[in-house]
Amino acid sequence: MLNKRIIVCLDVRNGILTKGIKFANNEDIGDPVESARHYYESGADEIVFYDITASAEDRGIFLDVVKKVAQAIFIPFSVGGGISNLHDMHNVLNAGAEKISINSAAVKNPALISQGAKEFGSQAIVVGMDALKVQESAQIPSGYEIVIHGGRLKMGLDALAWAKEVENLGAGEICLNSIDADGTKNGYELNLTAKIAQAVTIPVIASGGAGKPEHLLAALTQGQADAALIASIVHYGQYSIAQCKQYLNSHGVNVRLYW
What we know:
Layout: E1 5-13, E2 16-21, E3 24-30, H1 32-41, E4 46-51, H2 63-72, E5 77-80, H3 86-94, E6 99-102, H4 104-108, H5 111-120, E7 125-133, E8 144-148, E9 153-158, H6 159-168, E10 173-178, H7 190-199, E11 204-207, H8 213-221, E12 227-230, H9 232-235, H10 241-250
Parallel strand pairs: 1-4, 1-12, 4-5, 5-6, 6-7, 7-10, 10-11, 11-12
Antiparallel strand pairs: 1-2, 2-3, 7-8, 8-9
């Protein structure tokens, strides 16, 4: 059985590590390069770097910061934010990333997923999905709507339908973030995560809401996720990666324990 992964998320704004709640009220909390090195040395399985305002500001990602992070760690590294074409993808991979994460650009131009998969391989293409709980309707039968630009713009697109399309277009992985749970530390949105995980065959990363190891366990078991993305739980020192992994291991979840 494949190990479940613990992935640390670095949200970066203006080159500084930041954290918010439900995509708002962000505060700067440190240096992304030093943080990435610390989490790598502490046993993270992967690092995800998001330039969280690149898309909304219609600019490219800060490649200099990406290069510095890539030089500091030796685990898979995914980068997202402001990536809107194959040239951007190529630049990010050249800067040292193993994976490209696309979100807003993929919703606006779904062909970008298949283009990226053809050019760089499906394993390099991660599609981020930001979903907001809404009233179920004919347009949004799952009750979860896709939003873009850091949660600022509703798209009238059903999250479950979009997940299936993403897989069909060639994405190698989905990073599923609940806007409602993001940064709350009250636990992942398990209903949404399980729905998506059951609907696709590619790996699904649960994102948004981790506050204690029990939440990771729920996401990886009840939510059927292949990996759990964490941020606040480690950024503010409540738990270490080792503590999270030891808890998961003690509850029968296969994780990489030795680093």
